[in-house]
Amino acid sequence: MPLFTKRLLLAASLFLLTLPVLAAAPADSAAFNVEAATQHYLNTLTPAQKASSDAYFEGGYWLTLWRELYALGLAAVFLVLGLSPRLKSWTQRLPTKVLPTLAYIALYLLLAHVLTYPLSIYDDYFREHQYGLSNQSFGQWLSDDLKSLAVSVVAGSVVILILYVAIRRTGRRWWVWATALAAIFLVVQVFVSPIYIRPLFNKYTNLPAGPVRDQILSMARANGVPADNVYLFDASRQSKRISANVSGLGSTIRVSLNDNLLNRCTPAEVQAVMGHELGHYVLNHIPKMLIFFVLIVGLGLWFVDWAFHRLLGRYGARWGISSIGDVGGLPLVAALFSVFTFFAQPGFNTIIRTQEQEADVFGLNAARQPDGFASTAMKLSEYRKIDPSPWEEAIFFDHPSGRTRVLTAMRWKAEHLQDK
Ligand SMILES: [Zn+2]
Known about the structure:
signal, Zincin-like, membrane, binds zinc ion, 420 residues, transmembrane
């Protein structure tokens, strides 16, 4: 039960993080009060900034619920209002056995995306502007959205078609085979994403020469990360958020920092963030995450199989679905999978947040910039609530909160004050 164990460990670590006494702290750090230093950072946020940050992040909790209800409403449009049987009868006129299935899948993906526009335009465009986080005009937003729609319709149609061919051949144990296929697709997607998908939306370049680059590359070398694998990308095309990431797998793995980070942060802050990203790289977080994702997808597909067969007996005829291999059941499969992911979200969040906490600690050791790390954590409050309750953090946070991060940094600082 890795998920349960991880959550227990996290609960324990949260508890430890809130302990104010530093028993192992060296004598000369006695004057340095971790709690007071943490509070000092938290106080740099004005009440208005904190209110806006809380409202943005807490609104996200509700949006998760609205997105789920919207997804169920969408399934009702396809199944209860009869859009799905109509799509099936149009596409069945096409020749061969494969083409009708492929056409149905492509049309479903296209229509589902378009019908979700009222929510996605509010969520991704208006709300981001409302909180001053976006740099895009509506035209630019739509252009990016249409590009990702094209990628998901083309790639999604082929992937789902292969899944349906497999489902029709494997019978009741389809979900085991589908999980194996999903694992292959996930690995391929993560592998090709830095070369073929991300460059569709942003330009990736080498870091500009200068002391910041020298520091980052030196830290990369010290941790066994090849300098060729460090990139800069123009995230300011889309947003004001400061961020960095690790992407790819095997020969395509790379660390990328965004230009907002480079332009809005001090060299110490950039170094602190890059130390964190190098942590993801060195600790093999992407392959580990893929293993967790495949296990969760497998559990999700098992749930879909169980619920699908229960609903099929009762509503199959009314919704025009004959079996799990019938592509007309795709809206139901999608809705059931979305119900699963909705309830699995705290589990997903905890797995990701645990890796983030590991990368935080790695980054502090690699960059040795506790104040740079703490002040960056404060800057991230633009889009992440700074001081949630422990339960809120455990359920809704996919990264440690600002408070947890500042506290981790200040505790590290207290225990390493004597290091030079
Ligand atoms: Zn991270």
